[in-house]
Structures are given as C-alpha cells and as structure tokens.
Design a protein that fits this description.
The protein has 185 residues and is α+β, with helices and mostly antiparallel strands. The protein has one domain. The protein is 41% helix and 22% strand. It is built from three helices and seven strands. The protein has helices at residues 2-52, 130-133, 161-180, and strands at residues 59-61, 71-77, 82-90, 95-103, 108-115, 142-143, 152-153. A five-stranded antiparallel sheet has the order 1-2-3-4-5. The longest helix is centred in the first third of the chain and has 51 residues, at 2-52. The radius of gyration is 24 Å and the shape is elongated.
C-alpha cells in the first residue's frame, strides 16, 4: 500500500512543482516585458497619429471629452492643425480600430486602420488598403448613399461588407465626435 501511494503521489508532486515553477517564470516574464510592450504600443500609436495628421507637431489627449459610441480616444494637435480620433466598430471577425485625422475645419486628412487582425486575410483586409481608405480624404461629411448631394459617397469593398461598414462607421463616428468639439456640421 505504501509503495503504491509513492508511485501515485511522487509523480503528482513533481507535476505540481513543474507547473508552479512554469507559472512563476511566466509571471516574471510578464512583469519584465509589460512595460516594454506598453512603450512600443504608445510609440506605434504616436507614429500612426503622425501619419494621419502629418502637419501636427505633437498630440495631447483630450481626456475631459465625453466620447460618443464607438469612439475610444480623441487627441488634439499641439499646434492646432486638427484632431486624431480613434474609433472601433465590429467587423466580420472582430473589432476594427480606425484612426481618423481631421483638420481644424473638420475635413478628413487621412484614415488609417490600426487593427483589423481578426478580419479575413485577402478579403476583409482589402478595406484596410490605401486604395479604399483614400476615398475618405477631403470629405467633411460621408454617405454610403450614392445619391447624396451634400456628403461624399463612400463605396464598400465587394466581399468585405462588414469590414467596410466598420471602417465607415468609425470615420462617421469621428466626424460626429468632431462636431461635439465645436466644429463641423
């Protein structure tokens, strides 16, 4: 009986020790890499902001602003040339995160999809390409209705309706958020 207990108990203790050591090593690795990951994430976001509003000399987050549905953050340029508004809506496979650069008059300077990793490669990802995103440039109002006279018509990507709709909704939300800041419409 004692020998059988050892045969069952010893491997269990060894396995628990291995799991405990692996968990501690994983936690230590996370503690070491978390600040680096956060720093890189912030640098990438700042680079993307500079790409969608290249005339800006820097950005300040507008934390006191009440964010509309879908809008996750609003940054104002330090030199007053405009805003960068980040918004997120659901695409086909998951969230699609979009940064919209707006000049001080509310015209779209540029649109950049910063995350669409859950979208279908080769299909949904077409809505993240410059050929699609360039149609937003210069617009102050957008519409998915081709007969709209006052708004710029934005067409969807064939086969990527959900992703196109997520990008359109994000840009539309950015324009509405700009209006709440005292500009636009």
């Amino acid at each position: 009986m004692n020998n059988q207990f050892k045969e069952l108990f010893a491997p269990t203790v060894v396995l628990v020790c291995i799991c405990l050591i692996a968990s501690l090593l994983l936690a230590a690795t996370y503690q070491i890499t978390a600040p680096l990951i956060e720093k890189i994430t912030i640098e990438n976001a700042n680079t993307a902001r500079g790409e969608v509003l290249p005339e800006a000399s820097g950005f300040v987050e507008m934390e006191e602003v009440e964010l509309l549905d879908g809008v996750t953050e609003v940054f104002e340029s330090v030199n007053g040339v405009g805003y960068v508004i980040t918004s997120e809506f659901k695409g086909f496979g998951g969230p699609v995160v979009v940064m919209t650069g707006l000049d001080a008059n509310g015209n779209i300077v540029s649109v950049k999809v910063t995350d669409a990793s859950a979208e279908t490669p080769g299909l949904g990802s077409k809505a993240t390409l410059p050929d699609y995103l360039d149609q937003y440039k210069g617009a102050a109002m957008i519409s998915s209705d081709a007969s709209s006279a006052e708004a710029a018509y934005v067409s969807a990507v064939t086969g990527a309706t959900y992703t196109s709709r997520a990008v359109f909704s994000s840009v539309s939300a950015a324009l509405m958020q700009f209006a709440t800041l005292g500009g636009g419409f």
